[in-house]
Amino acid sequence: MRTTARQCALQAARLIAPARLPPIIPNGILPYESVPTPSDDKSSLLTSQIHDYIDAKHKETQVGDIFRDQLGHVKGLWLSNPGNYQQVFEQEGEFPKSMKPEAWKIYNEDNKCKRGLFFMEGNEWHTCQRIVRPLMLSQKSSYNFGIQLESLANSYVESWGKRKKLRNLEEELYSYFLEGLMVVVFGRNYEGKSKKQIPRLVGGVRGLFTESARMTLYDPYSARKPGYPGHNVWRKFSSSMSGALSAGEDIVNENLKNCESGSLCANLILAGLSISDVKRILIDLFLAAGDTTSHSMQWVFYLISQKLEIQEKIAQEVKQVRGCIHSFTSQIPTLKGAVKEALRLYPVAPFITRVLPHEAIIGNFHIPAETLVFMSTYTSGRDERFFSQPTRFWPERWGRRDSNKQVGVSHPLASMPFGHSTRNCVGKHLALTQMYLLLSKVLESHRVTCDNHEYIQYKMRLLATMNEPLQVTLTGR
What is the three-class DSSP state of 281? Predict the structure, then answer.
């Protein structure tokens, strides 16, 4: 890890400063109290509008790239410059911590529920992620079952082509991504009856994120108690969480004993993880996979539906592909760029969070230990300092020049759809593989048009999603 002179000065100051005195701040560094703070009245701010509010604050000259603010009961430091993101990652410590929804933590505590990687901390997280990450982020995890993933994509596209008009695309994408995860987690012959659990899991997860967003308006500790504000919301949230966890557990239990050699499940067991740890890791994978990837894929379809020339370019690239999935993605740069553009413009997680484990220097400010930091990737992903023509859907921007620099991208951390460092998304490679496969199969044989009459807007529902269901028509080539 690179250590700057300022960080060395701060570390030295920390060693010599008596614990009872205020921290010693190196020369030229401003105290935390000097960080700009907006004075807006946020009493009427809706959860669905948080990204717009934060984006607007970053664009104010008196606030800018760094400010501190309180939204509801959450206090934090907000950043929008990838240079500052890098400082956070350099000072996040050996065991990076991210923000967990308070209601989720309380539910876990109340129900004595041990959860997967996202909720693990310290040595437990470090031990498990060193096993899970290489298995999930290695291309081999998808290549082992490449034929099955491609067959799955073909079956969905064939079904869609017969119907032509898709009016519930989000739910079908949920099912597609969850079935793909089953293939990689359990192998080719996962229990057919597990597919019947998918609608139940989808319903639970969708309700979970909807009610989780509503819970941010209330104190979850009080809302658990009958008669207190938000109690009905808490009941719905708790019911959705229980339903989603139960459906995920049923899927894992049905397949655990018969998982195929080479599958993620079999490899986790071979690596020495206990059955209970394997189960909780896999259950949380199923809860996370469908919601995030289905929303991202909807934005891909929405954007390409308005650019027929890009659809034609991708279709021509697909026709030239020769070989199997191992070499497939490198031959379709426009398709990959289209997916990256959708993830940049409409990130499913518009903020990446970290809790700083000790005092740190971010920009020119001294930041106290345990400060919650929000990296505003929705804002930096649309910033002209980091992307040429930032609001334009331009898949070619991700192509390489002779100098190996990307055409329209000036900082790699300005868009982080899967996070960064060892706390990034372990399902990244599988998600991208499934997205590339599905888009290639659709455009190889169809053109896509959007049937929504109004402009679709980006809104927050704990994660970011569309303000109305995407409706598309597939027309055969």
Answer: helix
Question: How many C-beta atoms surround the C-beta of residue 407 within 10 A?
Answer: 13
Task: Give the integer Cα–Cα distance in Å for 122 and 95.
Answer: 5
- Give which of 477, 405, 416, 398 is closest to 445, Cα–Cα: 477
Bridge partners, 76 (sequence order): 69
Phi, psi for 108 (deg, rounded to 5): -60, -40
pLDDT tens for each residue of 403-438:
667 788 999 999 999 999 999 999 999 999 999 999
SS3 readout for 38-79: CCCCCCCCCHHHHHHHHHHHHCCCCCCCEEEEEECCEEEEEE
Q: Provide DSSP, 137-192.
A: HSTHHHHTTHHHHHHHHHHHHHHHHHH-EES-HHHHHHHHHHHHHHHHHH-TT--G
Q: What is the pLDDT of residues 45-84, one digit of tens each?
A: 877 889 999 999 999 977 899 999 998 778 999 999 999 9
User: Reduced to 3 DSSP states, what percent helix, strand and coil does the chain have, rounded to the nearest 5?
Assistant: 55, 10, 35
Helix, strand or coil for residue 390?
coil
Residues 112-120: contacts with CB under 8 Å, at least 24 apart: 113/245, 114/276, 114/280, 115/280, 115/284, 116/280, 116/281, 116/282, 116/283, 116/284, 116/285, 117/281, 117/284, 117/426, 118/284, 118/288, 119/284
In this prediction, residue 19 carries a pLDDT of 46
Residue 362 burial (CB count, 10 A)? 24
Model pLDDT, residue 8: 58
| 475 phi/psi in degrees, rounded to 5 | -115, 125
Chain mean position to CA 431: 11
**In contact, 54 and 376? CB cutoff 8 Å:** yes
Q: What is the mean pLDDT of residues 23-42?
A: 85
Distance CA 426, CA 30 (A): 37
Is residue 451 within 8 Å of 472, Cβ to Cβ?
Answer: yes
